[in-house]
Design brief:
single chain, mainly beta, 4-stranded antiparallel sheet, 0% helix, globular
């Protein structure tokens, strides 16, 4: 059983920066892939940033100039940094944990990000 704790989000002004944190915990944590997705009313769930099996990062072309994903100071923690926020960035952001050994996916509960001036 994997538990994901997400923090950050809230109200962000246009042009501002967003920083989200996700920490995984539980018994039997092993080889995994962690990343962030988002979903807005007008769109389906889309990739924001993710790590890969090789430890590299993967960003969609539409966001690669503004987004970074990194490992936090705490173990099993990933940080999402998104800069120069636009209204289109408003969405619910979800942390994703994929257990490679068992092929299991765990989603965070989601964090609401509102972009408004």
């Amino acid at each position: 059983q994997v538990q994901l704790v997400e923090s950050g989000g809230g109200l962000v002004q246009p042009g501002g920066s967003l920083r989200l944190s996700c920490t995984a915990s539980g018994d039997g944590l092993s080889t995994n892939i962690m990343g962030w997705w988002r979903q807005s009313p007008g769109k389906g769930r889309e990739l924001v940033a993710t790590f890969t099996l090789t430890g590299d990062t993967n960003y969609p072309d539409s966001l690669k100039d503004r987004v970074t994903i990194s490992r936090g100071n705490a173990k099993n923690t990933v940080i999402l940094q998104l800069n120069s926020l636009k209204s289109a960035d408003a969405a619910v952001y979800f942390c994703r944990y994929y257990d490679v050994r068992y092929g299991r996916t765990t989603w965070g509960q989601g964090i609401q990000v509102t972009v408004s001036s």
